[in-house]
Amino acid sequence: MIRQGEISEGDALPSERDLMAAFGVGRPSIRDALAALARKGLVKISSGERTRVTRPSADTIISELSGMSKDFLAQPNGLKYFDQLRRFFESSLVRYAASSATPSQIKELGEALELNSKSINSDTQFRKTDIYFHRVIASIPGNPIFLAVHQALMDWLIDARPERVNTVELNKQSYNDHVAIFECIKNGDVEGADAKLSAHIDYVFDNYYD
């Protein structure tokens, strides 16, 4: 009914009683179906109000994949495959950033880099500012799906990262990689930005995940 356009975004669904009659099923089946639709971002269920049709966001779509993705990461070579996915995805993002970033976007990326530099001695903070630096790059095309995919990918990979002690030296090198990537983006060096990103991902995979 929703995908066929019989019910539009913002419209209230029929009551549970009407849905039971229409589909010939009991109340538990209707509630299970509505819960499944809510997880997919197709409806919004509010206590005391009629369920309404909504439009799924990019975040909703990605969250549906999270469970399967984390299971896949735990399989042999799962981390390797996700690392390859990150390479393909971020390569396109960094190339776009180097060719198309506006002065204000470059300024924002520089500010993210400064936050990263101030957190080298704190592994928890460094992770956050590391992700933020890459997230700013992912935001440059202005595509919300890219941001959602990037956020999910980082969440999956960070969850899979082993706990380490004395990461300051690793963080310093990772920060230096970020500086090199930033300089290439600022100077419009597409090939250089891609090469620096590839070297950075090599370093991260070899030193943070082994």
From TrEMBL:
Coiled coil: none annotated. The keyword Zinc-finger does not apply. Keywords: DNA-binding, Transcription, Transcription regulation. One of its GO terms (molecular function) is DNA-binding transcription factor activity. InterPro entries: GntR_C (IPR011711), TF_FadR/GntR_C (IPR008920), Tscrpt_reg_HTH_GntR (IPR000524), WH-like_DNA-bd_sf (IPR036388), WH_DNA-bd_sf (IPR036390). It holds the Pfam family GntR. The keyword Transcription applies. Residues 1-56 form the HTH gntR-type domain. NCBIfam families: PRK03837.1. PANTHER family: HTH-TYPE TRANSCRIPTIONAL REPRESSOR NANR, TRANSCRIPTIONAL REGULATOR, GNTR FAMILY. This is Transcriptional repressor of aminosugar metabolism (GntR family). The gene is nanR.
